[in-house]
Structures are given as C-alpha cells and as structure tokens.
Amino acid sequence: MKSIEQLQEICKDVRADIVKMTAAAGSGHPGGSLSAVEAMVALYFNVMNHLPDDVKWPERDRFFLSKGHACPVVYSVMARSGYFPVEELLTLRKCGTRLQGHPSCKTLPGIEVSSGSLGQGLSVANGIALAAKLDKMDFRAYCLLGDGELQEGQVWEAIMTSAHYKLDNVCAVVDYNGLQIDGNVEHVMGIAPLAEKWRAFNWHVIEIDGHDLAKMLAAYEEAKNTKGKPSVIIMKTVKGKGISFMENVAGWHGKCCNFEEMNRAMEDIYGRGN
Predict the structure, then answer these.
(1) Are 61 and 112 in contact (CB under 8 A)?
(2) In this structure, what CATH number is given to the domain that contains residue 155?
(3) Which residues contact 57 (CB under 8 A, 6 or more apart)?
(4) Is 20 left (phi over 0), alpha (psi -120 to 50) or beta?
(5) For residue range 63-111, what is the model confidence (pLDDT) as tens digits?
(6) Number of domains in the chain
C-alpha cells in the first residue's frame, strides 16, 4: 500500500510517461489518458488484488479498459507496478512493439482483453464477474469507460445486465471529462443527467472529484463494500489534466506534443528547473 504522498509522486511520473511516449510515437491519445491518471494509479497500486509476475493468477482482480485509446495511462501504471520495464514505454505504437495503439491481450501479458472499439468493455466485465459468481470466487471486475463512450447503445445493455444479475463484484469507472474527439459531449450527444440514469438502472452511484486521490480510494472501498448491486464511480475530471495548455481542450484528444511542448509539459508536471 502506498501513502497519498507516494501516489501523488507516481501520478507525476505517469503523466510524464504519457506525454513522452505519445511524443516519441508521434501519435496517440494523451488527453483522455491524463484525465484518468489518479483513477488508474489508485487502482493498480492500492486497490486491485493482482500479481505482476503471475498474470494468470486465478484469484486476481480483473481490469478492462473499455476506452482502449487511453492505453498510455494503463501501460504506464502497468510498467511502474512491475509488469514490464519502464523503458519499454517509449516503444508505444512502433513496429514490433508489445504496446499497441490500443491494448492487445495477444502481445502484452496483463491485458485481460483487447479493446479499442468503444462500448464493449462493460459487457466483458459482466461476463467475467458472472463467471466468478458461478465459480464461487471473490475476485472483482473493474472497467474504465469514457463519457463519450456512453453514447454507445451496448453500454446501456451492459448496465442493465449488471443490475439484473446483481453483479456487486463489478465496478464501473466513468471518466467524465466532458470532451470527446468531436468536442463537448453534451453538444455531440448529451448524456446528462448521468448519475440519475445509472441509478434508474439500479446501480449504486458514487460521484467524486476524479483527481482527488483520497476520494478516489474511498470510492473504490465504498464500491467494494456495496452488496446486491453493481457500483459506478462517476469521476468529474479534466481532459489533459496536469498540462496547462492541454487542459479542457478537445484538440488534445488524439494529438501528441512536439519537442517544445513536451518540455513545457515536463515543467508543468515537475516544476521549472526539474
């Protein structure tokens, strides 16, 4: 278990990783990766029951990245929690790499299922969680979804399914940063009032500031302790969080930094002169 201060330092390194690896690749999706940093750092370092050196451990908790384009944040927390060397992050999206532009379970141990096509992750999490119930096992299934992704109809079928089977071992996490590739989520296809919709589907709803690590950890614990229904953590976040010129700018959804911008980003993360 890490202290809040230790987690905060890891968050800085993860943000730097995201900027550096997408810049080295010349492509990628930094905006929605940066908004999910605290959620993923808390999950991999303090919440999930997993063994980086035994990725097939039957009792492990499972994580599913439904918004697969945000894989830079997942690759970073995986590397920094021991799944593979941190140096490998700079191979993102390059020929022969294990770090594909969307995660592949065929190339990278520790990825539970390949993802990229939006709207499918929660359905997979449901299947794994239901299997755990049938096998009388205690592991949990976590799934990170984007807010724009919630415009996909399959997501709502999965939401209904989780509640129908009372999958209290499912925890969905919604990265509610308000922006998607085409702009403001509410302008493209409105999803508000979001919490009320999940409650109407009989989910336990937890609303938090997704950049507050203490609240993030408390939300995961509340979800774990909720019985008889699935839980969703709706975390209000900032797209591009931590990089001043990226924050709340939809254009950084799928755009990487040039050399000058990368240096500015490092100053934002670590402070000038570091």
Answers:
(1) no
(2) 3.40.50.970
(3) 50, 51
(4) alpha
(5) 999 999 999 999 999 999 999 999 999 999 999 999 999 999 999 999 9
(6) 1
